[in-house]
Amino acid sequence: MAKTKTAYVCAECGWTTGKWVGRCGECQAWGTVDVAGASARSARTSAAPVSSPAVPISEVGVESASATGSGIPELDRVLGGGVVPGAVMLLAGEPGVGKSTLLLEVAARWARAGRRTLYVSGEESAAQVRLRAERTGAVHDELYLAAETDLGALLTHIDQVKPSLLIVDSVQTIGSSDIEGVPGGVTQVREVASTVIGRAKSESIATLLVGHVTKDGSVAGPRVLEHLVDVVLQFEGDRTSRLRLLRAVKNRFGPVDEIGCFDLVDHGIVEVPDPTGLFVSRHERPVPGTCVTVTMEGRRPLLAEVQALTVAATTPSPRRTSSGLDSSRIAMVLAVLTKHANLKLGEVDVYTASVGGARLHEPAVDLATALATYSAVADTPLPPQLVAIGEVGLAGEVRAVNNTIARLREAARIGFTHAIVPENTDGLDAVAGQLAIARVPHISAAIAAARTGN
């Protein structure tokens, strides 16, 4: 008889070894290697019948893989055009960010188009989901609802309802009695995901799985879960703000640099096709210490306001505090202003912040931060219809950034009339008639252009 042996598998990456080790040899994680289960024979796998013959790639039909609109344009934008039949998407986000509310809205709009939807909730009862659906206007006859935590029962619901869209909320709450471990454990999550994905592929059911996240924001459970699915979506939002951002971390059917914007309101969640106004404050008259820039969220340009405040320091070490901005870049910009713009910042506390809870971490925000700080120190307002775009180097030079033309077009669309950009920016002829553009090589020249408004 062939000799049997025990296999050990890493719960994070699936790496296999013939003996137990404390640290995975592939992903270097500690304590994730455990017995795979049943022993396997050492004989080699023999050839087996194929499900379908291999054909030239030019003869493979693509009609069955064409995307279908979900009814929510912001979601379709992130997915790359819509939902692909048989695609499995994983939606992850912090507790309370609105994942279930968003998916219930997706299910309702899918059902309103005459397509059958199955919503399986493992965290709430059917009555609780029904109450939320009534509040958000998501009740429809083509939307079927089930509260299950058993994998076998979930498969039975799929066979009975035969949906074209399946939503499982969440994958960590579903378990199988045939597999060891508790629901949410590594083995259970892997088995549940593999089974649901297999059924979705075989029956062309578009599937949305909700995933919990850990303290560091990554998807809970084995890392192989993210490898198995076709799309990984991250739903983000600050608890102090109603704005929610949906971005694709992985997407086999479209780009991964698009975002969708949503507003979490009392009656559910609504799309925000033009979120620019959320990050720019309204002033009755120009005030010192403010400057508007244009940041890129994926492929979408968004106007955002940077504010700065300087006050006399009360301690030997002046304070440098920032909110929504990269503190290391703020420190660099302040050093450049001290060295190359002759600003006296050594005896003042400097506070910088973004408006509306926006997180501005790209280098293109440097120039607006510098001009807002200058405006605060000089107690002189900048022109209200001015935007500043550019990266500031340690030598005081202003460097070009990507997508400058798209940023300027968005500023012109909103109504801004003047812009300060790096001198070596290309393609400005495309927006020459829309904005009065000042091209500056150095931070001192940018301050001079902002002071004169030209």
From TrEMBL:
Q: Which domain of life is it from?
A: Bacteria
Q: Name one GO cellular component term.
A: cytosol
Q: Which residues cross the membrane?
A: none
Domain RecA family profile, first and last residues per copy: 64-213
Motif residue range(s): RadA KNRFG motif: 250-254
UniProt-listed GO biological process terms: recombinational repair
Q: Which UniProt keywords apply?
A: ATP-binding, DNA damage, DNA repair, DNA-binding, Hydrolase, Metal-binding, Nucleotide-binding, Stress response, Zinc, Zinc-finger
- Give positions of region: Lon-protease-like: 349-454
The record's comment on protein family reads:
Belongs to the RecA family. RadA subfamily.
Protein name as catalogued? DNA repair protein RadA
- Which species does the entry assign this protein to? Aeromicrobium piscarium
